[in-house]
Design brief:
heterodimer, A: 190 residues, alpha/beta, five-stranded mixed beta sheet, two-stranded parallel ribbon, B: 121 residues, mainly alpha, 5 helices, globular
Chain lengths: 190, 121
């Protein structure tokens, strides 16, 4: 695991997040997207003493999530189908942008989806890692590995992901060690 | 040995890269290009590596020559992505470069410097 230079992190135990009501997709309901992000945030909040609160007010939220196409003004233009899927900024910037040109899927029917379909929860979980201060991992099994094949799901944090974020934020008092063991097994299983 | 299903899956994954994305680079023709070669498409590869922080060139105008800095950039890419570090455009490296990915740069990151301490415990 790696961090952004300077190891920036949030110095709060609760972060608010909002999903843009204007920069959205026409083929996914806002509830679908919210459900995916709730699951993704819960992965991280289960291991560190930081909780995430969903709010409606996009402008005041700590973490701002939206779908954007092409050049959207942050110097990191999206490039159409596949290529770069999303990006997020280091603490305490809080912006998480997803490429609106992708074919995002929110269900588990990966094989029945388009050949260029990308699992939203996998990318959301990865990008939240960036929002928290993690960089990319060189371990292919890790959520924070930079590449993701279309039609694949990678949402379970591995030991590498957890070790990285624990070093930044310390452990959640409710952290269950058996969940880490399970992650370690998942690495052994490739 | 791959099962027939797995082989089919691999073939499909490769096909995705070739057919689905007009904006993304297909680097497959660069497999095994040697240092010193002048091959069309190398400039695109340099642009890709520059995009993700591996090539430091302020001009952003890249030649098609496979030069020493490109070899170094490929080695660093391989190290960061957990590939065998060869500095060469082997199949696994080129395949990985053609996969969709996060837009955040791989470089300018701080590697966990407590690793040895952690390992000792």
């Amino acid at each position: 695991y790696t961090y952004f230079n300077g190891k920036p992190k949030w110095n709060r135990d609760t972060l608010t997040y909002a999903i843009s009501k204007t920069h959205k997709l026409d083929y996914l309901t806002s509830e679908d997207v919210k459900t995916v992000f709730r699951r993704a945030f819960s992965q991280w909040s289960s291991v560190i003493p930081v909780s995430f609160e969903e709010v409606d007010d996009f402008t005041t939220a700590d973490l701002k999530i939206g779908f954007y196409a092409g050049d959207h003004g942050d110097g990191l233009p999206f490039d159409g189908v596949l290529g770069t899927l999303a990006h997020a900024f280091a603490p305490e910037n809080g912006r998480l942008h997803l490429d609106a040109a992708e074919t995002w899927i929110v269900d588990d029917d990966l094989k029945g989806s388009s050949e260029v379909a990308v699992d939203l929860e996998s990318v959301a979980t990865h990008e939240i890692g960036h929002l928290l201060g993690l960089g990319h991992s060189s371990q292919e099994s890790a959520v924070m590995y930079p590449s993701l094949r279309p039609r694949t799901k990678k949402v379970d944090l591995t030991v590498d992901d957890v070790a990285g974020v624990l070093k930044l934020y310390g452990p959640n008092p409710k952290l269950r060690l058996d969940s880490l063991t399970q992650s370690e097994d998942s690495i052994k299983n490739g | 040995r791959n099962t027939p299903e797995a082989e089919q899956s691999t073939a499909k994954a490769t096909q995705i890269i070739h057919v689905s994305n007009s904006t993304w680079h297909d680097f497959s023709r660069l497999v095994d290009v040697q240092i010193g070669s002048h091959v069309s498409g190398v400039s695109e590869l340099k642009r890709y590596l520059h995009r993700f922080g591996y090539v430091n060139d302020g001009s952003e105008i890249f030649s098609d020559v496979f030069d020493g800095p490109l070899e170094s950039a490929i080695s660093l890419y391989q190290e960061n992505l957990g590939l065998p570090i060869t500095g060469r455009l082997d199949t696994s490296t080129v395949t990985l470069m053609s996969l969709p990915r996060c837009g955040v740069s791989d470089t300018h990151m701080t590697i966990n410097n407590d690793f040895l301490h952690t390992t000792a415990h």
